[in-house]
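User: Predict structure, ligand manganese (II) ion.
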Amino acid sequence: MAASAQNLRINGDRLWDSLMEMAKIGPGVAGGNNRQTLTDEDAEGRALFQKWCEEARCSMGLDQMGNMFAWREGTDPEALPVYVGSHLDTQPTGGKYDGVLGVLGGLEIIRTLNDLGIKTKHPIVATNWTNEEGTRYAPAMLSSGVFAGMHTQDWAYDREDAEGKKFGDELRRIGWCGEEEVGARKMHAFFELHIEQGPILEAEGKDIGVVTHGQGLSWTQVTVTGKDAHTGSTPMPMRKNAGLAMARILEKVDEIAWSHAPHAVGAVGHIDVYPNSRNVIPGKAVFTVDFRSPDLDVITDMENRLRVAAEDIVDEMGLQIQFERVGGFDPVKFDGDCVAAVRGAAERLGYSHTDIISGAGHDACWINRVAPTAMVMCPCVDGLSHNEAEEISKDWAAAGADVLFHAVIETAEI
Ligand code: HGY
Ligand code: MN
Ligand code: MN
Ligand code: MN
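Assistant: Predicted complex:
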């Protein structure tokens, strides 16, 4: 890249202002965000992103999963675009930066190129992937998964939220169901900027994470069935307490994950007991086991051991159990050339950096299956995310976006 290009930087103030503006949409109750997928707040955030992209003279595309594409022309009509983006949907108690930094970082690249009057050979497309979080509609990364051919669109449209509302119906209801066939777009490369959502970069005093791999993920929904009964008049030996069985299984999840520490993690974040009444012994418990590891064999071992342990627990208590895999993907190795572009950019720009494996799942983990892909990470305060207190510094956001910018313009060729 020409020496003069080395000094190019994004506009950190403008990026920060846009982050704060977007954060006003779907505010949480404690300073973060609750802009869940396919809600009216999601629609509002999409409209703001589209408005900004149109102001940046992008032409907008929208596919049948609601994935948004803001296209900036390149000089070579034959050259495949470089895509850059992440997700605007948040957790119910999410932060202001998870996903949003990557979407607005992509837009900031386009805004900066416009400011500088620079044209790239390959077009550049800023992207918002629908339903990355997977909270309202499991699994996570649903739409990038359909784009990468991992799920059918019909299956995705039939996913139901806790109130029984279908994904496809809600996408149409908010008016963000496009005409474009999902996955028809071909990419020269895809880059995603994301906060680390863990403690490593901050603890090591590094500005940039060069993401070489993403750990694999497994979500198993477990349903334990016992018998509703009176908490007062039912003798202990007669009880079929699904809630108690769940508690014993949760202990096993923790034990199994610890047995593979530090390279594996496990938790249960979604729990429902029925009928969830103070004086009824729960006759049913439904919960999702989240196992992760960079090693697929470790994930498989944790899944198998959990099933055996859970079946032993329910057999002993005279209850029934069902398992349903509701999400997951194998560990991911990102594209060597794209990772080198990220690492080279951090080096040239003088940002401290370290190679890192992503603990969280990202749209890049699926897009990596259909296009050369890499990620840039920036630190977050106390490694905290999926919490309204999620926080980053303006400098970290700007450093991450600068590295993203240089990796993208190197790949898109200025
Ligand atoms: O679950 C994940 O890792 C991502 O935040 N959806
Ligand atoms: Mn995210
Ligand atoms: Mn997230
Ligand atoms: Mn090229």
